[in-house]
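Submission checklist for the structure archive. All mandatory fields must be present; incomplete records are returned to the submitter.

[x] Identifier: ATP-binding cassette domain-containing protein
[x] Organism: Acetobacter musti
[x] Residue count: 230
[x] Sequence attached
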Amino acid sequence: MVKAAGEVVLRLRDVARSYVSGDETLHVLRDISFSLCAGEIVALVAPSGTGKSTLLHIAGLLDRPDSGTVEISGRDSGRLADNDRTAVRCSEIGFVYQFHHLLGEFTARENVMLPQMIAKKSQRAARARADRLLGLFGLDHRLDHLPGKLSGGEQQRVAIARALANEPSLLLADEPTGNLDVKTADIVFDELLRAVRSSGLGALIATHNDDLAARMDRVVTLRDGTLAEL
C-alpha cells in the first residue's frame, strides 16, 4: 500500500553480507545504512560485481543479511519467518528485473492479474486494474497477446505493470532497461519514472546508465561494500 509522501518505506540499518568461497570470505556489504521515503526515486549506480543485486535482494526480502535490520514500512522484516516474508513481499514490494520474466503461457493481461489473484483480489478487480495499468503504458491493444508476440520494450512495460499491480509501497528495479536498445530504454524508463511518480511509492533503481540516474532524485553507489551518496 502506497504511503504518505515522506514516510520511510525502506530502512536498512548496519546491514552486512558475506559469502565464503573455499578459504576466502568475500565481504560484499559492510554496515550498510540507508533510508528511502515514499515519493522518492533513488538511483543505485555501481559496477557489476560490487553487490548491487545482493543489496536489492536483501531489501526485497529475497535474501537475509548476516547482521543488521531491514525495515519495510516501519516493520522489522529481515528476519521474519519465510511465510511472513512472502506476505510482506506480496503486499509491500514490487520487483522489476533486467529480463522481464513474464510467464510465456499467459497473456499480458493475465501476467498482471496473477499477483493480484495471489493476493486474493477478485478476478473482476484484478482484470480492471491490469487493463488500467497496461493502458497507462500504451498497451491497450496488446492485452490479449502472449509475451512471445510482444517486442522487448512491450514485454518490459508489462513487467513494470505487473510490479505495480498490488500497489506496493516500495519498488526495487535491477537494471530495468539494461536489455533494451538505447532508444527503447529511454522511452520505457520515462514511462517507468512517470508511473512511479504518479503512484507516490518509493523506488530504488539500479542502473549503469549515468544519464538515467541523473533523472532520479538522488544517486547512491557501492564502494568496497559501503554505500555512499554522490
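[x] Structure attached
Curator remark: The chain has one domain: 39-65+80-229. The longest strand covers residues 8-21.
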